[in-house]
Amino acid sequence: NICTNQGLMALAACVHMASLGKHGMQRVGELCWHKAHYAADEIDKIEGFSVDRSAPFFKEFVVNCPSTVKDINETLLYERGIIGGYDIGQDYDHRSNQMLVCVTEQNSKAEIDLLVSTLKDIAEDTNS
Fold this sequence. Notes:
Elements: H1 2-20, H2 24-44, E1 50-51, E2 60-64, H3 69-80, E3 86-87, E4 98-102, H4 109-127
Antiparallel strand pairs: 1-2, 2-4, 3-4
Helix pairs in contact: 2-4, 3-4
């Protein structure tokens, strides 16, 4: 029943927000912003990858990739167990080799650094 599901989702959201405390949502937002921008800055340093900075972003950003997103995501998943970004080219032909990456408060610095190091390895393999 869709109504029951909506009520359950609303209850879960309320419990989560209440458990965060008075300033919890603000802190979650700050963590999302800082972690996403850290990830974007590090990815931007990798030769062959670039972050689209034509618009401000909060926790999702577009990465221009040196090879197909499908190949990059397969390497991320099968070699490191990382779920990669969304292949924007699936929906927009003019945006092939672009990946939508999302970083939230749930991602640790170690996880972000592992993503970045794996993308560096991919870039080196692409440039070889």
